[in-house]
Amino acid sequence: LMPHRWDAPHLHRGRHGSLGRYSAGPDHKAFPFAPRALGDSRRPQLAHLKHARSLPDLPIPHPRPSRSTLAALPSASSHLDQPIIISTSGPILFTAPHGVRLLRGGHNGEPQRVHLRERWASELAVKLARAVGQYLGTPGSFCIWNHARVRPEDPEQLDPNFLGRAQLSSSPWHSALHHFARAAVSPGRPLFHIDIHGKRDRRDNLDVDVGLGAMEALWDATGVAHLKAALARNLGEVFRALPELKSRANKRTRFHVNAEMDPYLCGYRGPESFLTMSQQAVELGIPAVQLELPYAIRQELMRSEELLDAFARAIVAVYHECIQSGTVRYMSRHSQGEFLIGSGPQLSPPLVEPHLAPTLHAKLLLDLAVHDRELQAAHSNKERLI
Asked: Which end of the chain has fewer CB within 10 Å, C or N?
């Protein structure tokens, strides 16, 4: 099934004509980031990127469900009885492990502390999974927290990006990686994992951290070099088309967006330390990258469908160039992969929704938008988040 190219709630043409600003009718506040028109000068002009790579433009056959249809549906997440929502639809997996406020540490000598919610990380995982579908021929996969079932700072929910090896079999997220590795995708089709994170805007830059630390530590060096170069080239092309943006930490200065290819937040803490999501994927034989997106970039991706499309297109270009072509092959330098292969089945499988129906997909995005608005309102728009 192919996804929609739209965002709930149902969008209506505005008073500016066919390329005018979109509005969402009387309930626009329920979805505060309806995309502006492609001709709006305040949004990034990225149309030329659509022809930058020879990727197929596939049709989107589904009609848009009406607003009344969406309103009549139950919450897409409240009826699910699992802590996570996973869809294993395609070969590229997007995860957002910090879409809710979590506790981390408290074991093995680590002090317990709170990891703040990374705003829009879950929404972007779902939106990107849908967006890559028009270039892959099938929607991407995604895994996010089920906010209807997970309480903030719930001690029973481990931070999936900060797991000791003894904790892997207790994490639904690690189990989800096993499900993805065995997903009902085309036999032999190689997999790719994109772990979406948010980071605070910096005072002196708005760089996107492209973390390949686990790949560089555990993978074949030649393949990793190709992957690193492809990510730098394709993401750099997207970022160069962006205007300068303001940082929340320094509103006096605007910054160009760059791809930082050797960041501190690289997705790898060492062979004896806690495992990130990307390291877990790498040790299961899945090429993985950790993306740390500043708040300003996440905001632009939520506002601009054209930027989101260019970002998804760049990821698919990297997938075709490096993963599907076989340039990046699994050649682990360690034996940890054998350990991880046996770490997942001990946990009950998470609820899997293969090929989420388009209406449910749209409803899930609406649920996330409403949940975000409720959190902001509950904290008088002063919720501490990243």
From this structure: N
Peptide bond into 9 cis (omega under 30): yes
β 113-115/102-104 pair status: antiparallel
From 214, 194, 139, select the one nearest 319 (Cα to Cα).
194
Parallel, antiparallel or unpaired: strands 84-87 and 92-95 = unpaired
User: Which pairs from 147-150 meet CB under 8 Å and 24+ separation?
Assistant: 147/77, 147/99, 147/100, 147/122, 147/367, 147/368, 147/371, 148/75, 148/77, 148/78, 148/80, 148/367, 149/77, 149/80, 149/81, 149/82, 149/83, 150/83, 150/100
CB-based contact 196:128 (threshold 8 Å): yes
Rounded to the nearest 10 degrees, the angle between the axes of helix 305-318 and helix 221-240 is 160
Cα separation, 102 vs 152, whole angstroms: 6
Specify whether the CB–CB gap between 49 and 313 falls below 8 A.
yes
Angle, helices 305-318 vs 121-131, to 10°: value is 70
Per-residue model confidence as pLDDT tens digits over 13-23: 333 333 232 22
CB within 8 A of 253, min separation 6: which ones? 246, 247
CA 290 to chain centre: 10
Q: Per-residue pLDDT tens for 280-295?
A: 999 888 999 999 999 9
Residue type at position 45: Q
